Sequence to fold (552 residues):
Amino acid sequence: MKQVKRLAALLLSAVMLLCAGCGREPVEEKGLEIRAAFVEEPATLDPAYATTGEERTIVVHLFENLMKVTAAGLVNGQASGYEVTANDDGTETYTFTLRKDLLWSDGREVTADDFVHAWQRLVAPQVASPNREILKMVAGYEEAIAGDVTALAVAAPDSHTFTVTLAEHCAYFLSVVCTDSATMPLRRDMVPVWQTVEEEETVEEETVPPEPVPDWTMKKATLITNGAYAVRNFNAGHLTVVEREGYYDRLRIGPKEIDFFFAGSEERAFSSYEKEESDFILKCGDLEGSVVAHHPEVMVLAVNQMSSLSESVRQAMSLALDRNAVAAAAGYQFVGAEGLIPEGVTTLSGNLFRQVNGPVTPCDAESVEKNRAQARELIASFYRGGAYAMEHLGVVTLIYEGNATAGRIAQVLKQQWQEVLGLTVEVVAVQSGEMQKALERGAFSLALMSVSDVTNTARGYLENYISTSFDNYGQHYSNAYDILLRAAAASDSVEARDAYLADAESLLVESGYVIPLCNDTYRYLFRPTLTGLVQYDMGVYQFSSVTELPQE
Fold:
């Protein structure tokens, strides 16, 4: 009998141990953690103001747009689907249906009004967003930036429907505008209100800038997000984000945690990479093993159409340049520009624009020598115009914003034109405000400036030079050029649009009114044991699809 009791006790103990094991919480795997080192700390994470690669990279992890870019390409984001309607007046209306299970990181529902508010705020003159031009194809944009934000053709018929009417067809609307960091949704109660300035506070009909307000994005308590990640820690030198529980697509997220480390110097960032404390470095200088990537900035010369520079002189000045030498003077990160459209910009067909269309301003040594011979012939034909022609030309003045990089470029241009063409060019450094005023008034012959485009599209770079553009500082006017841009916008064929844009670039550059010089580049490092890094556009990276490579 005692033996039976002992057996029973042993069995009971075993069962209790098993049950105790069953009752424990399962040990959850920690999951993949990514560490990204940035040299520069972000000044803001506000979608309306984020402009640097560092800022925008963080924004696309914290927020999510109507559409999103993944390793598989463009897919639905906060929108579960959309419809496009061609209207009788030539406009197009996009109707987006939002997913039913969308939540902000504080548990509140994401609604269509969050997109309406964000897009209206983006174009409000009081906000003065540097990114507002990304919405320039939306109907009512001009009225909105003039002060009536309700004129922007966006609406929320109900909490799950967001509509946008475009003034004309825009081939990149979904892939660029609806994925961009600038057009992310924002709640009205999240963002500080920018009050409209009363009429008596205006001076010469210009809006008085509002008083500065604290940046709501630079504190964990106020940085509420709708994207795949939420903020865990935001301390000096680090921003740590973690996979968000309420995110609808949580199962597809690769890294469970991303730590953005703000190193403060290239040396410190690289040291963290060498010690395997970081997996990615953005803008890492020319460190060994780094990958060259392209920046949207292009240094160009704008030639005023009202100046005394004839077509043959303009063309000769462009053909005479050794752009690789210009780039070398600018700095190690610059490369000679092979056209106005920089490397990294894709065609509407999805291919790299420069690879498809080839160089308009070739930079190889053989082409440079050939072009310089042609430049000498062109300038000789101008000389044959006699003393009057040379007297009329006189000394050509080039203005540039007085920074070291622009100064070095200006001196190399002056030297090359003197050596190859015998032209005398005076270079004049001006302050930033003076430069902008001179450009707006057309008070220049040659202006050295950098151009970029918030959409990173070929059309975006070319639209500045249509006759009606506010940014057409050189007062360039060409009916043929305008027709090519209109044809590209109206065509139903992607291939035809790409061809029109390529023709427009050639026409513009060959006229000599815009002279591309060099492109800015940067380098990044990404740990080779990882895969799935997605480049959103030039300078913006997405880590949510990153996974570890199988170990051999």
The CA atoms of residues 488 and 497 lie 4 Å apart. The longest strand covers residues 291-303.
